[in-house]
Amino acid sequence: MLRLHYNLEKISMGLVAAIIVAASIGGLVEIAPLFTIDETVELPDDLRPHTPLELAGREIYIREGCYACHSQMVRSLADELDRYGPYSLAAESAYDHPMLWGSKRTGPDLARLGGKYSDDWHVAHLIDPRSVVPASIMPSYPWLTRPLDTDLLSDSLATLARLGVPYDQGMIAAVEADALAQSRPDSDVVDGFQERYGEQPAIRAFDGNPSRLTEMDAVVAYLQSLGTLTDAPYRILAEGSQ
Amino acid sequence: MTSTLTVSERHVGLLLSILLALMGFAMAAAARHGVMAVHGFMAVGLGMALAFVLGGALYDPEPSADRLRRYYDAPTRFGIVMTLIWAMIGMGVGVWVAALLYWPEGTPLWPATSFGRLRPVHTTGIIFGFGGNALIATSFHVLQRTSRARLAGSISPWIVLIGFNLFCAWAVTGYLMGSTQSKEYAEAEWYADLWLVVVWVTYFILYIRTLARRAEPHIYVANWYYMAFILVVAMLHIVNNLALPVRWTTAESFPIWSGVQDAMVQWWYGHNAVAFFLTAGFLGMLYYFLPVRSGRPIWSYRLSIVSFWGITFFYIWVGSHHLHYTALPYWAQTLGMTFSVMLLVPSWASAGNAIATLNGAWHKVRDDATLRFMFVAAVFYGLSTFEGSFLAIRPVNSLSHYTDWTVGHVHSGTLGWVAMIVFGAIYTLVPQLNGKTEMASPRAVEWHFWLAVAGTLIYVVSMWNAGITQGLMWRAYDANGALSYSFVQSVEAMAPFYLLRTIGGALFLTGAVVCAWNCRATMRGAAGHATDRPLVAQPAE
Ligand code: HEM
Ligand code: HEM
Fold first, then answer.
1. CA-based end-to-end distance of chain B
2. B215-226 pLDDT, tens digit each
3. Residue B16 Cα to ligand 1 middle (Å)
4. pTM score, two decimals?
5. CA-closest residue to ligand 2 atom 4
6. B410 Cα: distance to centroid of ligand 1 (angstroms)
7. B77: CB partners within 8 A, 6+ apart
8. DSSP class of residue B330?
9. Does residue A98 have a cis peptide bond before it, meaning omega lies within 30 degrees of 0?
10. 3-state secondary structure of B493
């Protein structure tokens, strides 16, 4: 063995090849099987992708680095189930490019956030966290009240569709109207929106003002959607406890 | 820089600078507005500045033919300066974000100075800016000395260094403007990632070509580690960053991976960024500078072989220990845990080999702060790998994951091991490359040493306490079977630890500032060269 290595050390391309081989095996064994997706991720029938407004909110969540302090992955541990809700399933993030599971909880997990607080609470909290949670160390985001830039949205949906997220041509074409519709409950564009995305997504003036489409609308819509894209985690937990 | 190049090399450099400026202009013109346009203009600025410098000195006297009988140290010197600049930026922002967790209002209310945007500036600035420049600069030095040959090229070392720093600058300014892929340690956007591939291929070719010129039959251990660093980082970078841009004219993109596959790819990348960026390359540094400074050969050649291949083979498996109890399939978690524990063997073999090398030189460790930096680095390497293997065990991880214990572990590795070995290498190199026998102020080195040790200990101990407190509070139940603490109570409990961490970090930063000042004083006015020479002269290009 030592002799062999003694000779290997004299051939630079030999070392290069040996390093590549040694460093590839582990990755191949662990990653390749995950792409037999049917076994890894069983997609529930009721799973829906994010709406355009929620997707815009998700991009703002990424832009501001919220994921640096908040995880979106409830582990299968008793205290996490009690604190946050049902543990996270792989299917829930199947349409997430990238996933936002996070690695640090400076703040609490957000995977089950949807519906936990009112829209008003979120708006107040984002503008000044300490106005609603005095001991919070979260930063303030007053600039979220600026208008939402929807310029990239249709290309974003198209790109995601190419990656396998179920957005169809109609959704891509109507993206701006749909973003607007979700924040204007009483407008006439709502029907089209519901035709495309179903009854499940909430339609509200998330920032409290239906006449303006703001970044705040998008972020709050996104936060309210967390954990509501499918019922599967709740069903599985209920079945398990019977 | 220019005085070390021949006239024809300056012409090539000028051409490349103009090409860089044109590329930047094309980027800016295509994007028109937004982050990509700003980045295009940054490239234009850099290309024009380089063109000015080279153009202004185009017909200055050529370097003497004697240069081919010397090592090419100018790139190493530049790399060290960049290392120190990024140390100030990265650690300065580190202290800032640390302070923000204690005092959340201690920042202007602008988007660019918000915690979530500054934090990746810290991690990218310090890992890639500080660590990366240190790795590239020392690799050029070690490669030449252990091969006893001059670098194979006068222009490509500059492409590597300047190109790499452009990548770092694009990355951190991008985050400040809100452009990020959000993948930890791989936040830079797609065109920056592509650019890094170009730089990295140049680096690899330069490395292999110089090795081919070596006057020693054997390739020294340190080079194995540097090669593993170059090769595996390339592999990880490419696979993890595969993404589709939303438009070719914007920075936004979507990674092609999603959900659980994305998580596995991300942590396969993430942990091996630790392994092959923050460990393998720095082990190369350790295997060269520790024996050189202590004047003792590496204790065991056999052990170096075992630990090198152990580290290269085992590390790749461990990424899934970041995903315990998550939606990742159980078998993958178990593999990650098992290999993490096995990884302790080659890790401690390396640390032990380094410490045993110092046997017979302990009096030097006592008297020489530079060697003491390296000794402490080896000790912290041993400590943090032990801690890492422990944290990877599933039940331990159930407590530590998501808490500040991870952050404590990270900084015991990065402050105690990575930064210490870099400082040890810098204090060895700076006098040598400038033809001096010691640093301008040896006392300042001593001061730096104690500031760094104190800072590291305060940081790490406070984060251990913080993390374990958090973990225990989150899982505490009262007598009625309800959770004892709300989340925000655990946040309040962190305040004293966050304050202490900020103080520890400030001490560490102070030490780094002292180091930069000392290096400047040593480099200033120094027209000297390194006095050692290659075995054979490099054939003229
Ligand atoms: C002056 C010294 C330093 C200070 C004050 C400091 C401070 C910090 C802070 C406050 C965080 C964020 C933790 C959180 O989000 O809870 C952090 C994260 C991090 N720092 Fe540092 N840091 C320092 C030096 C370094 C060095 C030298 C390195 C690497 C060479 C480094 C690498 C990292 C990494 C990798 C993370 C991310 C950890 C994770 O995601 O778990 N830091 N640092
Ligand atoms: C035998 C060696 C090591 C093992 C098995 C190991 C294991 C671990 C484990 C289990 C975690 C926590 C994952 C989690 O719960 O999220 C972790 C995090 C981390 N370790 Fe290590 N570690 C080792 C050595 C090191 C060294 C030497 C360094 C630095 C130079 C380092 C840097 C990091 C970083 C940066 C993270 C944070 C990743 C993140 O969450 O962002 N580790 N490591």
1. 18
2. 888 999 999 999
3. 36
4. 0.95
5. B388
6. 7
7. B137, B433, B434, B523
8. H
9. yes
10. helix
